[in-house]
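#structure-requests
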Amino acid sequence: MRVFVTGGTGLLGNNLVRALRSQGHAVSSLVRSQKKADALLSGTGAEIVVGDMRDVSGFESALAGIDAVAHTAAYFREYYTPGNHASSLEDINIKGTLALLAAADAHGVRRFVQTSSSGTVGQPPDGSEANEETPASPKQLANLYFKSKVDGDRRISAFVPKRGMTIATVMPGWMFGPGDAGPTGAGKLILDCVAGKLPGVPPGGTSIVDARDVASAMVKMLGRDVPRERFLVAGRFYTLREVLDAALDAAGKKHLRFSIPPTLALGLGHVSEAWARLTRGTPMMPLEGVRMLLDEIRPSSAKAERELGATFRPIAETIFDVVAWYGAHAEVMASPTRTAVTA
């Protein structure tokens, strides 16, 4: 196939580019920074297209002759910084995606796979695992990023292609993996942990997945022609204790002894966000992130395992590779070209 990948320098995007290229597919990758693309995608053989999801018309000519689009770009990481991000979430995650859909359809693209989030499904009242059709809870919809994905999914489902393009949705869990140069909240958690910046282990847990495993599932989805299918590729449930223990093991450091109680974690979330507003930085413990971890929602990836053959590597392997990647790519992390649009 000839595949157009958006968000090519993001965590999911750069791993997807590598997965596609390893199977012999031709890849064009949309990026916002040529310099960052040179650092993260060098040697992949991908064609680099510099553009912005706020202006799809500026790069849509690159869709000519493309068989499939894998849309991983989203406004995500900067959502956790102080300020009102509603307009950026709307412009990039919803309007930008709809514009890309229309452009892909106009150019005769056969298959479009867009990236949503497992955060768009809630917890069933009976405590069972969530599936692709479980609606999000009011608490999740209070998170404007998750809400942008729910609204985007709804509007994408209403989009009617004019030339037979099939549309599918992948819904990853909390992604960790090598190549997280942003870094996302996942990468920042590992970096802060290894650097000794965490006062203790936050409570709760969530479904965690290696970005490389999501990429593998997406490659299979891109090769299908089933319309309107949705797959949770959420990985497995892990506590924050398991994640941070794995990071410290990989770094050869002692485990954190102190486990932060839930009430204290919520308090630290408030303090962390107040300090971030004062310093115009990023909160170490975003309040909404703490709340989501305490909810311990457990989406099921059974459908993806059954229909796509999705598999999930153990958390220790993923976190070891994350720590090793950061150790080997200090120059990328020092780059001033980090952008707001990431996978």
